[in-house]
Amino acid sequence: MARMGLAPVLGYLIVEESFDVALGVFALAGVTDLLDGFIARNWANQKSALGSALDPLADKILISVLYVSLTCANLIPVSLTSMIILRDVALIAAVFYVRYKTLSPPRTFSRYFNPCYATAQLKPTFISKVRGLFTTDYFPPRCITAFTTMSSAYSYYHYGRKTVQVINNK
């Protein structure tokens, strides 16, 4: 939740060109992500279905706000931001589709969005993990970010069935 709350603050700071403070906010968001993962891995009673659903969503919100605000500040091109956001939208749409296909009837709105009914898990591909390094931590040349984003999107498309693990059919 902290990363989701920090996302608009980060965006505002970048658009207002307060880059030093924005870097601090981005670092704080990274620390909360590390702490969240550490706590979930080391204390079993702190891991939840809701948390495992919100974690990747918080990452996508933070990165999307980061790229849109960097584009608004004329620091990166619209085409790169569009590519990254379109890839994430396609992934989210695929997750919704897999959720629909793996949720047994009755497929009600409340069951569909209830994270306690975990039916499938998306495993990141290797290139997707590499892409994560290039889009969040180091900001390499734009061509590398674009290449890893496109490669990641293709890997999910090509290896789609291998990246989804059906947990149960309830």
From TrEMBL:
Keywords, ordered alphabetically: Lipid biosynthesis, Lipid metabolism, Membrane, Phospholipid biosynthesis, Phospholipid metabolism, Transferase, Transmembrane, Transmembrane helix
Domain of life of the native organism: Eukaryota
Gene Ontology CC entries for this record: membrane; mitochondrion
EC number of the protein: 2.7.8.41
Pfam families recorded: CDP-OH_P_transf
Reactions accelerated catalytically: a CDP-1,2-diacyl-sn-glycerol + a 1,2-diacyl-sn-glycero-3-phospho-(1'-sn-glycerol) = a cardiolipin + CMP + H(+)
Compartments in which it is found: Membrane
Membrane topology qualifier: Multi-pass membrane protein
One GO MF term: cardiolipin synthase (CMP-forming)
Main location: membrane
Signal peptide: none
Gene Ontology BP, a term: cardiolipin biosynthetic process
Name of this chain's protein: cardiolipin synthase (CMP-forming)
